[in-house]
Request: fold
Amino acid sequence: MPRPEPSTPPEGATSPTRRDCKAAIRTGYWFEAVCFKDAYTTAPELLDRVMLATPEEAVRLVRIQIRTTHPFALSPAEVERALAWAGGEGRVHALAALHRGEPAGFGIMLRSGLRAEWRVLPVRYLGIQPAGCSPEADVRGRGRH
Reply:
């Protein structure tokens, strides 16, 4: 049976071009913010998810989200605990754990009874990028998901 001839692109259309790419195993920091409706909920609601390049970026994002949540959703005791974590030892311990390759996180109970958690996991992943770009520019350029 004869093979069909490859179709030619329409007039003015360009065919895809081949780009050289680099692949490398990299370390990133998988950030998730989740919310549990109650103690019996097995699957939390996903609030935010993003891959970040450094432990500092991940902990900074946790701190920002804690500080923007507290004025409306937390009891005074939880506000105090959350701000102490964000500005003190909790943040330092989280950074140390991430630099050691261990997961880190923080959880608080909202006034409504919901439990909010922030989780950061060091992960190794295969990064593929066009040749000539730096890995740091690639991670930062992806933005939030």
About this structure: The mean pLDDT is 81. Helices lie at 55-73, 76-87, 89-99, 135-141. The chain is about 35% helix and 30% strand. The first helix runs from residue 55 to 73.
